[in-house]
Predict the structure.
Amino acid sequence: MALRMVMGNEAAVQGALAGGCDFYAGYPITPATEILEEMGRRLPPRGGVFLQMEDELAAMAAVVGAAWGGARAMTATSGPGFSLMQEHIGYAAITQTPCVVIDVQRGGPSTGLPTLPAQGDVMQARYGTHGDRPAIVLTASSVREAYTTTRKAFQLAERHRTPVVVLLDAVIAHMREPVELPPLPEPALNPWPGSSGTEPPFGAHPFTPFGGPSPIVVTGLSHGEDGWPRTGAGQATERMLKDAIAGIAEDPSLTQGVERYCMDDATVAVVAYGITARAAHAAVETLRAEGERAGLLKLDVLWPLPEAALLEAAEQVDGLLVVEMNLGQLVMPVRAVVGGRTHVAHLGRADGLLLSPDVIARRLQALTASVRS
Amino acid sequence: MKLSDTIRIRLTGRGGQGIMLAGAILADAAMRDGRQVTETQEYGPEARLGATRADVILSDRPIAFPEVEQADILLCLSRGGWLKYGTQVASGALRLVDVTAVAREPGDPEVRSFPWRARARELGDEVVTNMMALGTLQAVTQVVSVKSLREVLQERIKPALVAANLAAFDEGVNLGRDELSAPGVATAGRDAGIRGGEIHD
């Protein structure tokens, strides 16, 4: 292995391939296009399938179909395309289809600021599709993490049988950093564990694509574990959804998706993710050098929200500052979780410019002053 | 905030001038020199001609925030880039610009203008302007080695175009050395901790 300058989007592709991805369907969109281009170069020589579709609805539909055909499938897009994909993300959720969606966030809504970064899709990634569904949303704040997170997304999609969203932002996606990535595994048939034919195809059972001993009915209608529609009353679907949500809430690889920086003796702390966590890290460095007891909770998992870590921090500090490139999204569930145990302030913007370390440091100082008075 | 072991470089120009490629090559070369590096970029929705920038940070320690808020070194190839991205510079920053982007401003020794675009045309194709400018940046600032830059350039550029780009790079190094022999330059960028006046490969 050698150190190489790698772009975030390229690292995500390598992470996907390391996670077993062998199918990509997508539609180009800034700032996610490099993922599509790199998949187009890399998948076919490895025996995988690459499809450029007519739009994002079709791309997500192809991903769901490919998974049922036995593939480890993914797509990547940005805000406008992510909106179009929501219908089929919901379909993937009710059909318990493992797949991965990367959303490289840019300024919105709509066409918005096509080339500038944002973190405005945090709620859409969780609640964008109608109905209730289990949701796993991961994020990354370095090129290395773009690799590890995307690789992990495939493991989680398989374990929990649900679409996993990797939320990147335009800065992380387009930045280059020196990283040493492990060599890709040999392209190999990567079959799903076969079904004995006696286990039901849905519910808390491993995903079994088409081609097994028994026919499978896959429908977006409310259905039972056998797959047959149950539209008179939806208890069977409700139970499966509840089981899936509970399974996700208890998965330690998700609940511990937090990195603590300078938290041991912190009296105020930033909660941040993605590129904003990098700025917050620099802000905390500055404040520490000035003798202030500031800390950082960097979230690597946004959904399920790492509640235990937030509660623990809330018990310790005099104030939390949620910093994000939107006008107030993750701050809402953070406030709900903290429940008044500490003061929760918000620092956000949605104009395509980054929240700088200086701005964050000043806001933290103001928070410190206000909670002391 | 400013750390003496950290050098923040902004490259700016217009879409099509190869600013992204120049940034990627500079960052890759600095990595091979053993530095910590980040490279970020920004461009407008235009496919061509809109202002673009690439920010490269070099440091001897891990880099938390990868965007340049105040550049120690600015390299500018276009008027649009100068207006949109050229103002975010530290005091005492060294600014290397193409003569068509901004003329040498009397009384401002830190703005150094070079005829990169015109020389590139004379060499046969303006498309090599970015590599010529990189050569000058190397010669004037020494923030990255000629060896690493030439190595990366040869790897990153299409084989058929390597010779023309190397020739442009070498011409840029010469332009930088000529400039260094002009009075006042040895101190330019001193505040940013950049060595000036030394010439070595």
In short: The longest strand of chain B covers residues 89-98. Residues 186-201 of chain B have pLDDT under 50 and may be disordered. The CA atoms of residues 110 and 188 of chain B lie 6 Å apart. Residues 159-180 of chain B form the longest helix (22 residues).
